[in-house]
Write the structure tokens for this entry.
Amino acid sequence: MSLFAELKRRNVLRVAAAYVAVAWLVIQVVETIFPAFGFGDAAIRGVVIFLAIGFLPAVISAWAFELTPEGFVRDSEVDRSSPTIRAMGKRLDRLIMVALALALGYFALDKFMLDPARDRAREQAIAEAAKEAGRAEAERESAARAADGPPMVAVLPFAAVGGVEDSVFFAVGVHDDLLTQLAQQQSMRVISRTSVLEYKDTQKNIREIGAELGADAILEGGVQTAGDRIRINAQLIDARTDEHLWAETFDRELTASNIFDVQTEIAQAIATALHGTLASPVETGPGLIPTTNMAAYRAYHEALALSEEQLDLQSEAYRDLLRKAATLDPTYTRPWAELVGSLTLSASGGDDPAAMAEAEQALAHIQSVAPGSADALIAQAYYTYYVIKDYELAHDIATQAQTLAPSDPRLAAMKSWIERRLGDFDAQIETLRLARKLDPRNEWRTDTLMWNLTLAHRYDEAWAELQAIDNPGYRAAFLGVWLRVREHRDLGRLAGEMDALYEEYGEAVAVEDRLYARLVNREFEVAETLLNEMPVPEKGRGWRAVLIPDNTLYEMELRWFLGQDDLLARLVSDTRARLAEYVPNGSVKDSRVLLLSAMLTALEGETAETERLIRRWNRLESTDWPERVHNRDWSCQILGMAGAAESAVECIRTGLEQPSRVMPYLEPLLPYYDPIRGDPAFVALQDELRAGEQASSGTVERPQ
């Protein structure tokens, strides 16, 4: 008898098959259950090893013994012709089938129900871990910067004790003026008013507030008025230890002079307390009160709120509020300074003489009432930046202003614009970090920092900043959608995530954002529907090509993608007519008009002329960093549409070497490069970019 036949006769093969099936089932169940009871991988490995070791004794026992109704009997003593022994073999066959059925059933349950649930839980855990890691990294960076710089102080809104109307009025005034006085101290940095207002009547403890604001110390207090008397109490608390550093109560006669004296005493007491614990030596002397006219103060802050809501520094509504504040108190210098900034921005192109004249009058006024002040320097920096366009000098003036107003986040933001113009992007990002540090609860500050990190190709830093945000607004969530393309490389998923943003944020999601996502995913019919819904913006405001609205740009691209030559020809002809009116002699000197001209020639298939126009754009914008940063990607895409493979590849490489909107993980996927997708130069670029991303993926935590 052969060995195989003997193994079969002694049921060794049946036992081996049954053992393997049951062992596999046990292992699958253990892998699911053990983690829920706190057992780790070591316990699971122990079970696997135990079952593996048990296989050999089971097979040997099957060879030597036979299972009978009387128990285990040596094989040599068993009568194989007995019906009972044959029945036991059939039972063993049924056991194998049941074990296999259970194993297959559990496999299906695990594969289609338990495994997806585990994946979702794992992804959520990874996302939470990444968020915590991002927050921890941001906190470590903040702590490292704080260790080298002055302490951060947060002045919480003062409470109106007793709820009397006068007490409320003076509580607001004392809080605002204290912020102004403390902000002038070189020995500390003061968190902005906009970031601390949300903590009015808060139930959070000092440590929580300090952690959220990045503050080293918290000042809180109250104001109470009674007849002709005012009582102001204040206390300074270490945000890290809850230790009271200083406390005082002031009882004075209710006069403006006394209130300002008390505020000065508080400011100096705080500086002295910090000097003994956290700060460097303090300068003395009373600070300047910005205005005693609360209506003027209110109008100015309404202007700030409007500018941050509309993201528009040139609106007449914004300017009217600044003018109102300046008229109510002509010596209130800050609205004058911001009015100069708004007007010079409009006059920077040389085509708004009325704005220029008003800006120069405002600048002369502020220099006459407060020469050498921080606000006079800020106004001068605006004028030098927008009108004279001497960026080195503007930077020097802004730096000088910072020595007088070191805690002013708007001044830090303005300085960052100048640094961008100078091409010093590392300095710009650090200045943006300072602006965010001074105004940590201002969503716009964090969004601006993240976007500029992205433009500088510092994607991991941008992702870490994003993960540290608890409740991101639309701009931050929108950036997250584009950063996640690094991981999935799926333009269809990108378009779907843009639709999800629309479901969550509603009208905050511009039609243009959804349109572009569908366009780059080659969903041209859907893009056409969205194009019909896209409103035409006010003339010139946010028009990428100056002469025509973005609606027309998108329509020309869409007709080109769809191969609708007749419709495209009419659009190109109409645009050329506008171009001829704008540049009657054909001498184009406006960079964006040059790009528009290049786009028209690309749409008409004139490759050589497109390349010539893009070379002119490069020469014209060799020193204009913002233009290069924000339109480099457009110039590359135009070259791709023109079929200029080598020029497009060179353009993309330049965009990756310098700050720009060219993203290495996204740009090659876009449909603008379809005409050159098979060109050897473009294929080599794609391979190079993929290799670079793979090389970095092993050391950097990637967005999911």
Observations:
- The beta strands are 65-68, 71-74, 152-155, 159-160, 189-190, 217-226, 229-238, 244-253.
- Residues 157 and 200 are 6 Å apart (CA to CA).
